[in-house]
Amino acid sequence: MPELPEVEVVRRGLAQWVTGREIAGAEVLHPRAIRRHLPGADEFAARLKGRALLSAERRGKYLWLPLSGAAEALMAHLGMSGQLLVVDGDTPPEKHLRVRLRFEDGGPDLRFVDQRTFGHVMLTPLAGDVPEPISHIAPDPFEAVFDEAEFTRRLRTKRTEIKRALLDQSLISGVGNIYADEALWIARLHWARPANTLTRPKVAELLAAVRTVMGAALLQGGTSFDSLYVNVNGESGYFERSLEVYGRRDLPCSRCGSPIRREAFMNRSSYSCPRCQRRSR
Q1: Coil vs helix vs strand at 53
Q2: Which of 44, 153, 170, 279 has its CA 20 to 30 A from that of 121?
């Protein structure tokens, strides 16, 4: 699933290509793509027509495009395979095209393509500057409003594993399985260490590692293991070439040479170095 760097790459592309453009029409080709917009496809299209997309915003893994007029936005969650593509209007429909926006200027369409239909788009009111459905989600570590002291305080009250805490979107948003593993490797922490055993300096080190790895991924266009994650122009990121532990089972750790291990975690996988990230007894 796309994590913060991948979604930020898409946001930047949307900011460049759709900001300020007026919607001429919206077409819903699969009802599941707007399943959380309860009034349905006709109302969805009618409310978008004639309105301009004012900007492209993100919190964690969610994207939204504030609209002119009422204080609401077009919000998207990409799920496992969702793509927001800026495509010339004459381009034939993609096989898994779900929603299409056309614009008054006759320029490129904005298309939501989703093979597995786990993603969705919806119209939603804004609660301040954030869509109401995600107003409970914590700021991500790149937002100006992210409170590092409050994050540290709350993290050190949790008895759960440190990786589980990093994936808690009410504590910090945008960190997923891949970048949690990578940040924990940088900070030399085993994923199962209880969060409440970390000192304040160690929390600061871990947070710096989170920012480092996601910032590096952003510079490389994100992580793409297959053709499903792409930016708005259909291009894949290449940060998977720089991953230190994730997906590298039995390959040597670049720091110490020990074989990377894979362990089961929350019905997924967690990767770590048995020497650099010793599990506490």
Answers
A1: strand
A2: 170
